[in-house]
Structure formats: structure tokens, C-alpha cells
């Protein structure tokens, strides 16, 4: 699709003339500051009605008084900044006010703007306008939502890279190669009398395979985003009274698991999400591994088995070699996770060696080393993609790339076998281009945009 067609479609989806929106861009509640934003063709008249002094010097924060245009009452004394179109986030005239925080002041400023002619914005409407006005593409718009929702450094880095346009540029290159491939095929159709067409058929195959490899490389990054979102499952396992719960509390820095001298205290799995490198952990403290008789304890041991089956890393905890050996034997065959043997309670004289790492929940000894070992283990199990490969973060990305890859596989099979005429085989290449178009926002209806922005916060 040409850039002109893409721009015309965006124009069809642009907000109607005269539609000016306003919203708080910061969460309500007790805070030092709050930001209220206005965008649209009526922003200038709203500023003239509510802000003193007016007009403002563009892109210079100015101390101003915000008044309600109906009553003339002062809503707040605030910093106001004017961003005339097109040099603004949305590409429209934008007025941004940084008011005092709290419940009343920002609400009063917003009410003044609504009284002056703005309507309350819907979720994601500011970013949506930036997209429709060509300030962002769809991947970058999604990255803003991902940046806000990021719960780990992995997702934070991926969102920043996507916001910078790294994924867009990658997709654009692939799209250009496929369009060149379409041109070669068109030449082959127009000049069938030429031997092998204008270029050797092997060159067509190699171009197709190159794009397939790139798509597969992008799809291979999806597990990284999934780990960043849900965390790598790190399970503490051991016989009763092996120091699991104490280590769990020490790793998260607070008392979450009950610790007593009585065996079987932990009856159910306790999990917590903690930030770590290279991936966050979904740290799970499980019931002690033993032949339980009491029904509640037996259920706890069964839950332990379920977590072991899902584990990326299992920390076999125990003060003594015998206890660690018993736990490791119980874990054997119940997990595909990497096993790290942890000698616990090193502050006690009875603690015995023979482990991968020695720790003390009481003194903190060995906790840094344990984190490092788990991080190295996760890096081996789930290698990070090269720095120049952007991470795909959404199911939408996966579907579009998988569709493009499937279409290219169909083309390659028919091209190399000669099973279909070139005119028919070429439709698969065009379908792959359309799949990549959908990634960067060359869309025909508002349905896709509605789904993308449904989970955005109001004011963004």
C-alpha cells in the first residue's frame, strides 16, 4: 500500500472537525502535581476563555491563573504550556496545564475546560489522534500502552525500543523486500518468453527465504515478552523444615511465609512476583516434600508437584546433604526445570556443604550469589535475542507475523514445485505484504483501533 493511500485512510478515520477533548493525564488522588491536557481545533479558544495570561509563548511553561469561564472563579494557579499544531504530541493544537495535585484543584481545572467547550476524552484518545495525524504508527502507539503497563525491566526495555521505531523499521524493510519480490514476479508474468524470467528463479526463492528467516527471528522473541510479563517460575522445594520459607522471605524482603520449627507449616504454595535480571521471578514457596498423611498437607504436596511441573528453575533447599538428596530424588521426574542445590541456614553449625550455593536467610549471606546463579541459569534456558532484534510484545504482532510467514511458505512451495501459475502463486506474496501492513497500522476500519486503545488509560 502506498503512503498516499495510508494517509487517505487515516484522514477518513480522523476525528470530526470542531471536536476538542480534555482529560487528566495523571491519576487522581493525593499528589504534588496533576496534569490536564486539551487537544483539538478548539484548544485556542478554550485557552483564551480560561487561561490568564493568553496567548502564551509556544512550548514555554508559563505561570498562569485558570478561571472557570462561567462563574469567573479561580480554579487554580498553574503552569500552562501551549503547543500549536502540528508540533505537538497529537499533531493538533494542545494546551497542557500542570496544576496542584489532590482531588479539587485538577477537577476544577478540567471542569473549566469542559465548560469552555471541550468534551471528556475517552481511553487512549490522545494517542489515537497522534496515530491518525501521522505522529506515530500503530506499533509505536501500542508501545506507549506497553510502557505504561510494564511490570518488569524486560517489558520496559522492549516498549522503549518499539517506541523508538525499531520494530517499525524492521517491518518496513521486510515489506520493501516483498514488494520488490512482487515486482520480479510481475516481470516474470509480463515476459513469460524469457528463459527463467528476468532473473533466475533461485533469486526469487532466496528473497522469500530471507524474509522467512527474519520473520522467524522476530517470532522467536515472543517468549522473552511472555517471561517479562508473567515471570520465570522459580520454585523453592525441600523436605519440611529445610529453610524454604525463611529463604522465600529473605529473597522478597518481607515476612510473607509463616516460619516455625514445626514441620509442615507451609500447607499451600505462596507466590510473589519480584524484579530480577535477566527476567523477573515468579517465586513460589511450596509445601515440604514428604509422604503426607493429613488431607490438607497432602493437598499442599500435590500443589507443590503442579508448580514443579511448571518451573523454570527449582531451588533444592536443605541444611544437610541428606535432606537435599531426599528432596532432589522427590523432584526427579516431576520437573523439566533446571535444578540449583541451595545449602540453607549456613549460620548454623550443623549446615553441611556439597551445594551449588550456600545461603543464610538470617544474615543475608549468599543471597546475591543465589540471584546471580538463578539469573545465569535463566539466561541459558531462555537466551535474550541480539540487541538489534526488537522484541514483539503482543498476540496481534504474533498473528500478523505468523500469517505473513504462512503465506510465504505457501508461495515458496508452489514456486519451487511449479505447481501453480506465477499469477496465482504471487497472490501469497501480496497477502504477506498485507499482513505486515496490518502491523504498522495500514487498516481499513476502526475495529482494529478500537481493540488496540480499549485498555489505554484516559488522558493518554
List keywords for this structure.
single chain; 460 residues; alpha/beta; Gyrase A, domain 2; Four Helix Bundle (Hemerythrin (Met), subunit A); Rossmann fold; 3 domains; 16 helices; 13 strands; 47% helix; disordered N terminus
Strand content: 15-25%
**Number of helical runs?**
16
Question: How far apart, in Å, are the first and last alpha carbons?
Answer: 29 Å
Question: What is the CATH level 1 assignment of the largest domain?
Answer: Alpha Beta
Major sheet description:
7 strands, mixed
Poorly predicted segments: 1-17, 257-267
> In terms of structural class, how would the helical and strand content be classed?
alpha/beta
What general form does the structure show?
Answer: flat
CATH superfamily of the largest domain: P-loop containing nucleotide triphosphate hydrolases
CATH architecture of the largest domain: 3-Layer(aba) Sandwich
E-strand count: 13
Question: Could you spell the SSE succession in H and E letters?
Answer: HEEHEEEEHEHHHHHHEHEEHEHEEHHHH
Q: Which topology of the largest domain does CATH recognise?
A: Rossmann fold
Spatial order of strands in the largest sheet: 3-4-5-6-2-1-7
Tell me the radius of gyration. Answer: 29 Å
Number of domains: 3
Percent helix? 40-55%
* Average pLDDT figure: 86
Summarize the structure.
The chain has 460 residues and is of the alpha/beta class. The protein has three domains: 133 residues, Gyrase A, domain 2; 126 residues, Up-down Bundle (Four Helix Bundle (Hemerythrin (Met), subunit A)), CATH 1.20.120; 154 residues, 3-Layer(aba) Sandwich (Rossmann fold), CATH 3.40.50.300.
Amino acid at each position: 500500500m502506498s503512503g498516499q493511500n495510508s494517509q487517505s485512510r487515516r484522514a477518513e478515520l480522523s476525528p470530526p472537525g470542531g471536536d476538542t477533548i480534555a482529560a487528566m493525564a495523571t491519576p487522581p488522588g493525593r499528589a504534588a502535581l496533576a496534569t490536564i491536557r486539551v487537544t483539538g481545533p478548539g484548544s485556542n479558544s478554550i485557552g483564551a476563555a480560561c487561561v490568564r495570561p493568553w496567548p502564551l509563548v509556544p512550548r514555554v511553561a508559563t505561570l498562569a491563573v485558570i478561571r472557570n469561564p462561567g462563574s469567573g472563579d479561580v480554579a487554580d494557579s498553574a503552569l500552562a504550556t501551549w503547543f500549536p499544531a502540528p508540533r505537538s504530541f497529537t499533531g493538533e493544537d494542545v494546551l497542557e496545564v500542570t496544576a496542584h495535585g489532590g482531588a479539587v484543584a485538577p477537577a476544577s481545572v478540567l471542569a473549566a475546560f469542559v465548560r469552555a467547550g471541550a468534551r471528556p476524552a475517552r481511553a487512549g484518545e490522545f494517542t489515537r489522534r497522534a496515530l491518525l495525524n501521522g505522529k506515530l504508527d500503530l506499533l509505536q502507539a501500542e508501545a506507549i500502552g506497553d510502557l505504561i503497563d510494564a511490570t518488569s525491566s524486560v517489558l520496559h526495555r522492549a516498549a522503549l525500543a518499539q517506541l523508538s521505531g525499531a520494530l517499525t523499521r524492521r517491518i518496513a524493510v521486510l515489506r520493501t523486500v516483498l514488494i520488490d519480490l512482487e515486482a520480479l514476479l510481475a516481470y516474470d508474468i509480463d515476459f513469460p518468453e524469457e528463459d527463467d524470467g528476468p532473473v533466475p528463479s533461485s533469486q526469487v526463492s532466496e528473497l522469500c527465504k530471507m524474509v522467512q528467516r527474519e520473520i522467524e527471528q522476530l517470532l522467536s522473541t515472543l517468549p522473552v515478552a511472555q517471561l517479562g510479563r508473567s515471570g520465570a517460575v522459580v520454585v523453592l522445594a525441600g523436605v519440611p523444615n529445610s529453610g524454604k520459607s525463611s529463604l522465600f522471605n529473605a529473597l522478597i524482603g518481607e515476612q510473607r511465609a509463616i516460619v516455625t520449627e514445626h514441620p509442615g507449616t507451609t500447607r499451600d504454595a505462596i507466590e510473589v512476583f519480584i524484579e530480577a535480571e535477566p527476567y523477573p521471578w515468579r517465586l513460589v514457596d511450596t509445601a515440604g516434600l514428604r509422604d503426607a498423611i493429613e488431607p490438607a498437607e497432602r493437598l499442599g504436596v500435590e500443589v507443590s508437584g503442579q508448580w514443579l511441573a511448571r518451573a523454570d528453575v527449582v531451588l533444592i533447599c536443605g541444611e544437610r546433604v541428606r535432606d537435599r538428596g531426599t528432596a532432589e530424588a522427590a523432584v526427579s521426574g516431576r520437573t523439566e526445570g533446571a535444578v540449583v542445590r541451595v545449602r540453607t541456614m549456613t549460620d548454623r553449625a550443623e549446615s553441611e556443604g556439597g551445594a551449588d550455593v550456600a545461603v543464610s536467610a538470617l544474615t543475608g549471606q549468599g543471597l546475591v550469589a543465589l540471584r546471580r546463579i538463578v539469573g545465569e541459569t535463566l539466561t541459558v534456558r531462555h537466551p535474550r535475542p541480539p540487541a538489534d532484534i526488537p522484541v514483539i510484545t503482543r498476540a496481534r504482532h504474533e498473528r500478523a507475523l505468523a500469517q505473513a510467514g504462512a503465506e510465504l511458505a505457501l508461495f515458496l512451495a508452489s514456486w519451487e514445485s511449479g505447481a501453480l501459475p506465477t499469477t496465482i502463486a504471487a497472490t501469497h506474496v501480496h497477502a504477506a505484504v498485507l499482513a505486515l501492513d496490518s502491523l504498522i497500522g495500514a487498516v481499513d476500519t476502526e475495529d482494529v483501533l478500537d481493540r488496540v486503545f480499549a485498555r489505554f488509560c484516559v488522558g493518554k
